[in-house]
Write a structure and sequence with these properties.
It is built from 2 helices and 2 strands, in the order E-E-H-H. The chain has 86 residues and is mainly alpha-helical.
Length: 86
């Protein structure tokens, strides 16, 4: 189902990033009267502050597996120490 949408979109073609060729910003309706210069300035400020590559699902999954392994190892060490004390 398609809905009719009337939004102001700011598209930046030259992001200055090695990773991204363009960025799109959807302007909130209450700020649609702000000057284009101010919107572009704000967009470039956001782009320049975010220089890292976003984490992918694979990286998140890998870090979850590492965390599970660490917790399992810690539980094993705790169990071994408890067995030695008794």
């Amino acid at each position: 189902m398609a809905k009719g949408v009337n939004r102001q979109v700011l598209e930046i073609h030259d992001t200055g990033s090695d990773y991204f060729e363009k960025a799109m910003f959807f302007v909130k309706p209450e700020y649609s009267t702000v000057s284009e210069k101010k919107l572009v300035s704000s967009a470039f400020e956001l782009i320049s502050n975010e220089q890292s590559v976003p984490r992918t699902r694979a990286l998140k999954r890998k870090s979850g597996i590492i965390l599970a392994a660490k917790l399992t190892a810690a539980a094993g060490v705790g169990a071994a120490l408890t067995a030695l004390i008794k």
